[in-house]
Amino acid sequence: MDKLTQYLREWALHYIKSRDLIHRNIVNIADNEDGFVVELKDGKQCVIVEAELNADEVLSKLSAYKGQKSALFVYNTQQNLEKAIASWKKLAEFDRHFMMVFVNPFSSTEHKWSFFPMTHHTLSDKAENALRVLASSVEIITEEKLEKNIR
Q1: For residue 62, what are the domain limits?
Q2: Structurally, how many domains does the chain consist of?
Q3: What is the pLDDT of residues 56-92, one digit of tens each?
């Protein structure tokens, strides 16, 4: 696993654990080659971590978890945003429990933005404009800046 993916994986794991501090709903977290599976008191959540978005590959990996909670963590790069827009129809039709999280751990503002593609698609006709607005809440980062900050 490359260092960018490993760093994002650690960030995602820390984020998921910190969100559970109050509710204490996590029973176990098991690593797998693509991310991890979070066992919850009321089900499971599959988490995929990819430095670069490949919608077909991610949705194929998540297909076994359709109908259950699932999440994809990617870096908040311009390329990933453009790939999400280009793959919008596939992402929006996948599953109502599927969440995407775009991350810039080095942002001086927010560090992540997230949404459920199916829900977002239902509420908005203009996915491209809406995604660009959401993305603007977190600084876009380049692969070069990621490489420089992650040693």
Answers
A1: 3-149
A2: 1
A3: 999 999 999 899 999 999 999 999 999 999 999 999 9
